[in-house]
Amino acid sequence: MTETNAQVPMYYWGIPDSPLNWCELDYKVSPFICEFYNTISSFVLSMFGVYGLYLLFNSSFTDKSLSHHIKIVSQLGIRAKVTLSYLSLAIIGIGSAFYHATLLYKYQLFDEFPMIITISLFVYCKLTLDQVQDTDSSQYKIFRKILPYLLTGYVVTVAAIITVIRDIPTILQASFGFLVLVCVTLSSQYARSIKMDLRNSNPKKLLAYCVGSMLVAYLCWLVERKLCSDGYVIPGVQLHAIWHVLTGAAAYLWVQYYICINLEKHNYKTKLIYSMGIPSIRVQ
């Protein structure tokens, strides 16, 4: 006897072959999207990246403070780094949406490659905050010359490993987590060197928002992985979708922090502008 269509699961994108299957039930909301809420929330990641690019390129005559801010950021020589950082964040969201919509491994890589590239960019931005000086040690000068090659080698190595070894997702998680830890440690060390308290320091505020968002995001990710039951941990709440939103916010905020410390390092006064609760830095 053959099974009826009602008895056969329907997979619009084919049978999922990703080694990871998240808490959200597959094809529960839509027959065309494997994990509906995880897919939709992925676009929030992209929106944070697009908003960051908007703040970098929208030289509007109606917002003279933003136009002045963009001009100063360009003069500091960091516009290319910031552009790449926000562009890679936007690409993460697109890759994540493809992945969660299908749960196919090829699209999982489309999600994971931009993740490791983006955090490598952040580390590079932080480590190249200062210009190389004639008084710097020869070892430091060599380090700065080879830094792009070291980070590129790290990205390529991780990408090659996760392409070949499909069933050990902790490889990417550990590789990504290591660079996140490096980035947060370096950023925190710099913030502690600022001789102002949190209330009066825009870099410290932005970094606090960033780290707070990342910690809550990680808690959501971890709780869902450990306590998922029948599609939820908390009924009606998809914690992995919250992870997407908060990690997108954290990445956006870190780049704003990077812009802010560059401005203040060059003796520009800064101010925080809040739009729908989302802070952005401006030259005062």
The CATH class is Mainly Alpha
Mean pLDDT: 94
Low-confidence stretches: 1-8
| Number of H/I helices | 8
User: What is the rounded distance between the termini?
Assistant: 76 Å
GO biological process, one term: ceramide metabolic process
Pfam families: Ceramidase
Membrane topology: Multi-pass membrane protein
Family: Belongs to the alkaline ceramidase family.
Word description of this protein:
- The protein is mainly alpha-helical and 284 residues long.
- It has one domain (5-283): Rhopdopsin 7-helix transmembrane proteins (Up-down Bundle), CATH 1.20.1070.
- It contains eight helices and two strands; from the N terminus they run ααααααααββ.
- Strands 1-2 form a two-stranded antiparallel sheet.
- The protein is globular and about 60 Å long.
